[in-house]
Amino acid sequence: MSTFHTLHAAYEVARLRARAAAWRRHGRARDAWPLAPSYRKVFIVGCPRSGTTWIRRLLAHHPRVISGPESHAYPQVLGTFTDLGLRGAAGWRRVLDRYRRGDQRDLAVGLHHWVDRPTLHRFITAALADSERSDEEAATRVVQAIFDAYLLARGGTADHILLEKTPDHVFWADRILRHDPEARVVEVLRDGRDVCVSLQMRARTQQWPPRPRSDQIDMWVRFV
User: Fold this and answer.
1) How far apart are CA 210 and CA 219, in angstroms?
2) Are 129 and 27 a contacting pair, CB within 8 Å?
3) Average confidence (pLDDT) over 159-163
4) How many helices (H) and strands (E) does the chain have?
């Protein structure tokens, strides 16, 4: 994180914390969360280059399915506190910085496709205002609010299904189902040899895929 981005994120969180204190005094935090009906969720997960995008596009053709690009919501929000071990304001600064970088770079995936900045600020303020929640509980509530807001913004009702596809969410499946036992996780499995070939081809034009064959195999094994 650059010095400029560090200062900007620190200023954002300081402003949100001041607003959260005011909300706490006046009992306004509860009104910040979206009032979504009870609806079903489906998470598509699996090793990259296994066909997760193809499955998402196939299912998204159903008129009652609402879907979007990869959100990376769990690692980007909850993982900041559970995996990186950040706490309080430092964690939310990290969340906002990652959101800003994805938005500014116009990345094809990320939270900026699911929630705009003012709405994310509102959810974080509400999380900060609830002093009874732990950081992990607050982050989980923010992730839920992001999904709820996305559904509502697209006219979703209790009859709709929210379909989310992020390959890395395979590592969050237990936590997802613990928090939302009615959700379904669809794991896409593809022959590891085909995945390696696909990774090799994608590595010609993008930086993220591993290039050594041993690293490609290790990646497949780790996900499966």
Assistant:
1) 8
2) no
3) 98
4) 10, 4
